[in-house]
Amino acid sequence: MAVAMAAALERFRTSTRIEHLLEPLRSDGDAPGLYFEDGGHTVSYAELERHVLRVAAKLRLVEKGLADRSLQPLRVALLGYGDSPTYIQLLFAVPLCEYSLVLLNARWSVNEIARALQTAHVAVLVYEGGLLAPEVADELLQGGKVQPVCIPMQYFASLDGSQLLGSEMTSPTRNIQHAREYNQSEFGVFFTSGTSSEAKGAILTHENMLVQALAKCEVLGYNASTRYLHLAPLYHVGGMNSFLAVVGARGVHIVPSARSRSESDQIRALIHRYDVNTLVVVPAIMFRMLGGKQSQDDNHGRDSVISTSMHTLLFGGNALDHSLLAATCDAFPHARVYEAFGMTEAASSLTFTRGHKFGEEYLPGGFAPRHVELGIMDLETTASEPLSDLHVFPYRLGEIWTRGPQMFYGYCNQSTKREKDEWFATGDMGFFTADGALVLAGRKKDMIKSGGENVFAAEVEEVLMRDQEMILECAVVGVKDARLGEAVCAVLVVASGRDAERPTLEMLQEHCTRHGLSRFKVPRYIHFCASLPRNPNGKVLKRTLIEQLQLCQIARTNGGRSTHVS
């Protein structure tokens, strides 16, 4: 596998970005490449390439009709669910035309869409009709400095040979002389999750996306036998990068309808129907698929098995608690389960865990692919660079920094761009073990300063979820406290129908102490709610939680007693 990775990297360095994207399409002939649940279409890679070239030609015609062609690079935004052949064709056609992709979250409000269009200086918006009515498209652009041309996606779907006679594009030829320049150019703009502030548009290059896709192939073993079910949304960098990785490996894509993606029974049915063997998911999706924490009961065995064909499962987005990991291994007994730590600015994953299988001892900590450089910045240091000799400084807790060819070019609307070898502070805390595994300790902004001690929310959350069947999910935040500065508060969501089993504060504190938490880390307050506030990517909005808690004045009024606000 390492030899194949090295060969792939060498091909990348000596080929243009467009050639690299289209190579798998043109090399596999009529082999099935994509199955679309919506409409029942089956598309070979060869068919896909023909459609991509026609869509690209139509895009060129759109460019010629633009009143303002001064925006460079020309950015084309896609607003859709990612479940149609036309959407997939556009993912290839836009870079083929040497334009930049801007993938918009289909769950955003009209205002959020308008803000993203302005932030990224989008020239063309291609949208699915059901998501954006023409009159709404016109309204959201009123008053903006940038006025993109809005085109329904159906415009590109209704193509036949006579429409584009004489105007079809051809596959690009190799241009070694300019390969490095092409690969450093812009692939697209991806928006960060925006858990602590407004989402930012990170500019990613072709090199960023391709080295990360190649890393997934090496670590996870993607190949031509991979059968990948699209559950990770393509507008998220992790979903898009996984898509490119499977394309590069010449694997098969199963594209569910947007409706099926949100229905656990439909996901399970698709896994069986298409003999799916690879999934990339966030914990919340898997939780729904498993129907809750069923495997925590004494109900292990064949009744809990969903599929024996699954061999690769990658979790990302949020930390995976031990009970969900155990339930996943029960449901997919032949699968190797990986956890990835990554971020939008790094074009996806920075580390991967070793891969856990049913019956094996769980080993925490992830390892970086060979092209990713990591370091730890001590919280007390005044140094300008992190500690990167990890064998000399194991178990030193600090902020995780990174650099390498995976790192983004810069943010939209920022006058200065990043240098290629510049270190980037991830905002995540962690430490390295003696064998070089990175163990995460939560977000730096989530660190609670209580009585002069540092409390990492992720550590407390992990303990709270151990052996607590009635707790569906939890979040730990700091609330204002006159004596301690901040006090640890646990926000809990209790399983439906189990309100009577809610733990008291004393029970929760005893549980934390029994599982080895230091006294200053044990929650002093608890708060119950129906659900945790989340952004469209599924990440918990702790800032919103803190605001809600401040309104409730928990720290000042309930004297350590539990409180509940619906």
Automatic annotation (TrEMBL):
GO MF terms held by the record: medium-chain fatty acid-CoA ligase activity
Residue ranges annotated for the AMP-binding enzyme C-terminal domain, each copy included: 459-539
Keyword Zinc attached: no
Domain AMP-dependent synthetase/ligase intervals: 29-411
Statement: the UniProt record of this protein carries the keyword Ligase: yes
Superkingdom of this protein's organism: Eukaryota
Keyword vocabulary terms for this entry: Ligase
Gene Ontology biological process: fatty acid metabolic process
Protein name in the entry: 2-succinylbenzoate--CoA ligase, chloroplastic/peroxisomal
Protein species of origin: Porphyridium purpureum
Lineage: Eukaryota, Rhodophyta, Bangiophyceae, Porphyridiales, Porphyridiaceae
